[in-house]
Design goal:
This protein has 785 residues and is of the alpha+beta class. Helices cover 36% and strands 21% of the residues. The strands form seven sheets. The protein has an eleven-stranded mixed sheet, with helices on one face. Strands 4, 5, 23, 26, 27, 28, 29 and 30 form an eight-stranded antiparallel sheet that branches. Strands 16-10-20 form a three-stranded mixed sheet, with no helix packed on it. A hairpin with a 2-residue loop joins β8 (312-317) and β9.
Length: 785
């Protein structure tokens, strides 16, 4: 039986019974044959390739992580590309297609909307502009990396492409420097785009009007804890005299976040700095993070790369360790364009009419006719009206301006990180960084630690949370906050620094940072944790990354119970909530009860004022209002006190119904991990057979939205963990580095390293990720003739 016969069965059949019949086997044999196909597509664990002028060994450790040992820095990047190409070739192609709007060509109409957006954003054009400005040394390093990927690609084409290519019946194009740049730019869009953050304030204002209801809704869910250390005065800088957002700010509790913290020698039991960093992004299979160690010439560094990009985002070298969180300063604006009623291809600028730049894109769609897309661009940027949330599509013409549409130099910075010899040198490399805005923490072997906000933050003359008038020149960006005016901290008095997507500084900072932050509950917890008496050990740092204590629950459980009792609810579960320690372990029943009730209460609060189409976007951005309404309704959100009490009682009953539906009528069987679990999903898993073959899970997952061990869920998907701690790094500058990925190193479903790190990740444990002088493991050799 040939591989093609098995592939045809998997393409044609929905169930194992159908596959077995197609192959004339029993079900167990059919499954075994399909799994053997997956395993046959995993690259050999060792071998040798002749490459002119390249001398590199790639040693994979027990977790499949490559240690690239090379004669030169350029050879090291060839080895990195080769290893990444072996492990993630289909993921690389999928990321490239996602960034350039060509996914529908291989995956069909379901990906057409994504392609339409990416064609409109036209990230390829800005990647081309950035590529044209690369310094020669950076271009050489990038080309070396691409050459390594293409070595792996050529080898795979001879010995068998990954399963996904065979299943979809196509081969990947060569990887180019432009591909790395456009994949990186698409990741920046994921971190900074988020149209609802701008649309929501606009349409909330339209619905609630200029009434007390508007500031009540806009109140944040905790925004007092800043990254800037308490008691440290702000520097004397010229004060920007332009617009500042006054009053309550909406939160930005999107699907991304992160934590990082660093302790200096005075707070470290090792006598040297220690750093932790954990990015929170949507869970994917394979993970977007690729771990590797690079040694060649003066380069010796290890850490996590974003797949397709040859720069370490979280990691260390011999002298410096670093990590980052998303800063969430506003890097984009939406402009309401005044168009000509007689000619929709014109828009107004003052007293004149200008013509939109129009281009036509043709999108290939697997199994369907090509789709033609007409893209209009104003001087601010592309028209994006059709990609706004459903509630915001009201027939208006809206254009986008985004910092990421400008040529930037992040790749230069990434290469410089790996070579930085001190915190000051690392900070200097951050001058090159434009997008996104990140909170970087750094530590070095000399004992110095530091914080630096980096990125280009626009300066606007007029502050505005919603749409801006496109034809008003007062709403054009004037400049960017100078690098010297971005908050930077050296030696903090408390001996530590931390960030958790919370505000960097107060509004008293001389320049506006224009942020909409998520709640500061994670930062509050880090403050509690790091201010404990005594020096912190490596074990303390690791325990902090796994901390599932939730300050929201600790603060709001008692008011919720009191409100429910006032509403006439009488249940032993209320007493259990009061006795709860507010820790979201996978075995916790109170965690289930509190979280599901909070969701149901949020729905009833929002239903009072907003149409159903907005609710998904409003949750959890209305959490500040939802919390306050547990205590009292001082603004008349509900028609009466009686209606508020009725809504509370209904939310409680709905929560119990949900829990009973999901876990049964026996309350002793209710566990947080039973409804809050990680399901790792492969992009091709669209039939029961492929789901069984390619997906992994569910894996019970501790934590919640506001715990340091962070995991976001979508209530519409029954509390499945969809985003959260995707990677953890712990670096001890006096000892070992440890890390863990929320899946595994390999993108091949037949590989033992596909999801082998998940059990450690669930338990808050790590694998070593060291600058090992003599690593052991399976070895590939790239050598000259």
């Amino acid at each position: 039986m040939t591989d093609e016969t098995v592939l045809n069965a998997l393409r044609a059949c929905l169930t194992w019974e159908e596959v077995a019949a197609y192959l004339d086997l029993d079900i167990d044999a059919a499954r075994a044959r399909a799994e053997a196909l997956l395993q046959s597509r995993v690259p050999a664990r060792s071998g040798e390739v002749v490459v002119p002028e390249v001398s590199t060994r790639i040693v994979r450790d027990a977790w499949g992580i490559p240690h690239v040992l090379a004669e030169s820095e350029l050879d090291a990047y060839v080895g990195l590309g080769f290893a990444m190409g072996q492990d993630r070739l289909w993921q690389l192609d999928a990321l490239r297609r996602a960034a350039t709007g060509t996914l529908a060509e291989i995956l069909g109409p379901a990906l057409l909307e994504s392609d339409r957006l990416m064609r409109t954003l036209n990230l390829r054009r800005v990647a081309e502009q950035s590529e044209a400005t690369l310094p020669d040394d950076v271009r050489e390093q990038l080309e070396a990396f691409c050459g390594g990927i293409n070595l792996a690609r050529a080898l795979a084409e001879r010995e068998g492409l990954p399963f996904e290519f065979a299943f979809l019946e196509y081969s990947p194009e060569p990887w180019t420097p432009l591909d790395s740049l456009v994949v990186m730019r698409a990741f920046w869009w994921q971190l900074t785009g988020r149209f609802p953050v701008i649309c929501l304030p606009e349409f909330v204002r339209r619905i609630l009007g200029d009434t007390p209801l508007l500031p009540a809704f806009m109140q944040p869910e905790g925004d007092e804890a800043t990254i800037w250390p308490r008691g440290v005065p702000y520097p004397h800088l010229p004060r920007w005299d332009g617009g500042r957002l006054e009053g309550p700010k909406p939160t930005d509790s999107g699907t991304v976040g992160s934590n990082n913290w660093v302790v200096g020698p005075s707070r470290s039991a090792t006598g040297a700095p220690m750093l932790c960093s954990d990015p929170h992004v949507p869970f994917m299979l394979p993970s977007v993070w690729y771990e590797a160690r690079l040694q060649g010439g003066d380069l010796d560094a290890v850490g996590a790369f974003y797949a397709g990009v040859p720069g370490i985002l979280f990691g260390r070298n011999r002298s410096v360790a670093w990590g980052l969180t998303n800063n969430i300063s506003s890097l984009r604006d939406l402009y309401l364009e005044a168009t000509d009623n007689t000619d929709p291809q014109r828009y107004r600028r003052g007293a004149e009419w200008k013509g939109f730049t129009v281009r036509t894109e043709t999108i290939a769609v697997r199994g369907a006719e090509p789709v033609t897309l007409e893209v209009r661009e104003a001087d601010h940027g592309p028209v994006v009206s059709e990609f706004l949330p459903d509630f915001a599509r009201v027939g208006e013409t809206v254009s986008l301006r985004w910092v990421g549409h400008e040529p930037t130099r992040e790749l230069e910075a990434l290469f410089a990180f790996a070579r930085a010899g001190s915190v000051p040198a690392f900070r200097e490399a951050l001058r090159l960084w434009s997008c996104p805005t990140f909170n970087f923490l750094m530590a070095d072997t000399a004992g110095e630690i530091g914080y630096q906000l980096t990125g280009k933050i626009p300066l606007r003359r007029i502050a505005e949370r919603g749409y801006r008038p496109g034809d008003d020149p007062a709403h054009v960006w004037e400049d960017y906050v100078p690098f010297e005016a971005l908050p930077a901290v050296g030696e903090p008095p408390e001996g530590w620094l931390a960030s958790a997507n919370n505000p960097v500084v107060t509004d008293a900072w001389p320049y506006p940072l224009s942020g909409t932050w998520p709640s500061d509950y994670r930062m509050q917890r880090l403050i509690q944790y790091l201010n404990r008496a005594g020096a912190l050990t490596p074990e303390d740092m690791a325990a902090g990354q796994s901390d599932a204590y939730c300050i929201r629950a600790a603060q709001w459980t008692e008011p919720a119970v009191r409100a429910l009792r006032e509403a006439g609810v009488d249940s032993p579960l209320l007493d259990e909530l009061l006795a709860w320690d507010s820790i979201y372990t996978v075995d916790s029943r109170p965690a289930c009860v509190f979280e599901v009730f909070f969701v149901e209460w949020s729905r009833r609060v929002l239903h009072q004022r907003f149409p159903a189409a907005m609710l998904t976007h409003l949750f959890p951005n209305a959490a500040g209002l939802v919390e306050q309404l547990l205590i009292a309704d001082t603004v008349g959100w509900f028609p009466s006190a009686k209606e508020r009490r009725r809504a509370l009682a209904e939310a409680w009953e709905a929560a119990l119904d949900c829990l009973q539906t999901r876990m049964g009528a026996d309350e002793t069987d209710w566990r947080w991990g039973s409804i809050h679990a990680l399901q790792l999903r492969h992009p091709l898993a669209r039939t029961p057979v492929l789901t069984d073959l390619l997906n992994r899970g569910p894996f019970p997952h501790p934590g919640t939205w506001n715990s340091v061990n962070n995991s976001l869920y979508d209530p519409g998907r029954l509390f499945e963990a969809i985003s959260g701690v995707s990677y953890r790094l712990f670096a001890n500058l006096a000892g070992e580095t440890r890390s863990i990925n929320a899946s595994g190193q390999s993108g091949h479903p037949g590989s033992p390293h596909y999801v082998d790190q998940v059990p450690l990740w669930q338990q808050g444990e790590y694998h070593p990720l060291n600058l090992d002088p003599d690593p052991k493991g399976d070895t590939w050799t790239l050598r000259p003739d």
